[in-house]
Amino acid sequence: MSASPCCGGTAATVASYRCRVAEHYWVNQRYKYIRLEADAPIAPITKAGQFYQLKCPTALGHEPFLLRPMSVYGAGPEENRIEFLYNVTGVGTKAMATLPEGGYMDIVGPLGNTFTFNARYRRILVVARGVGLATMAPLIKEASRAGVEITAVMSARSPADLMEKEFLRGATADVRSVFDADGSSSVEAVDGLIRKLIEEQRPNAVYTCGSQRLLMLLQRVLSDYPHITAEVAMEQHMACGMGVCLSCVRMFDSDGDRRFLRVCREGPVFPIREVVGEVEFG
């Protein structure tokens, strides 16, 4: 069964877009949702797993110098519509959180590659924690449209942080929730859960994003299941986002050949089994 990049198509030309803030609100105490309307068609060229560089405003003493990379949470159905879901945690996102509806923001993209997905898959397994759910939400949508069954292991600090509704966005899925608060998100517990799901449900592919701990866990588990497609969308601190500054390089191992690759350019989606060493997640 051959696979192809999710949503198909060829790489789009990177461009800068002037966007109006159509909606902007708090989802919970940590995360905000923002919907932008671009000055040109943007949804048709934006694929699952890609990201944009966002120019955050200067506000309340926050003066972000660099553009901020942010995974696409959604695009469409209007051609000029794009959505982001973000954790308000640093200088850039705190400044971004002050943007009023009706205001404007400049973004650059689309950047990066896409998830490998085949509409003929029977089932996929997604493992998400924190802001990683925003990155994989478009993949969930694509799988749902194709009639592919979905199992989602969602990890969070507590039930209040889970955002299951925001992750699925109407898609039907077998959701298994684990939390730090009750210990169900421990490495041992999740290891057992993932192995049980793989044995019982036999997914064609496994995807993750948002947690170094979950990435390492999946590397161990999936070494026993070499036939399963397995990918991680890496969230990495970066400057230019276009492969020039080399600030986001990480080491990967492909068939014994170790090399440094740029998360922004060769990624952000990589085979889980090829990631080497420590990986920083934003």
TrEMBL record:
Protein family membership: Belongs to the PyrK family.
Domain of life: Bacteria
One Pfam short name: DHODB_Fe-S_bind
PANTHER family: DIHYDROOROTATE DEHYDROGENASE B (NAD(+)), ELECTRON TRANSFER SUBUNIT (PTHR43513), DIHYDROOROTATE DEHYDROGENASE B (NAD(+)), ELECTRON TRANSFER SUBUNIT-RELATED (PTHR43513:SF3)
Domain (FAD-binding FR-type): residue spans on this chain: 14-117
One GO-annotated biological process of the protein: pyrimidine nucleotide biosynthetic process
Alphabetical list of CDD domains matching this protein: DHOD_e_trans
Residues involved in FAD binding: 68-71, 92-93
Species name: Caballeronia cordobensis (Burkholderia cordobensis)
Cofactors, names only: [2Fe-2S] cluster; FAD
Cofactor info, note text: Binds 1 [2Fe-2S] cluster per subunit.
Gene Ontology terms, MF aspect: 2 iron, 2 sulfur cluster binding; flavin adenine dinucleotide binding; metal ion binding; oxidoreductase activity
Binding site for [2Fe-2S] cluster: 240, 245, 248, 264
Name this polypeptide is given: Oxidoreductase FAD-binding subunit
Lineage: Bacteria, Pseudomonadati, Pseudomonadota, Betaproteobacteria, Burkholderiales
Keywords on record: 2Fe-2S, Electron transport, FAD, Flavoprotein, Iron, Iron-sulfur, Metal-binding, Transport
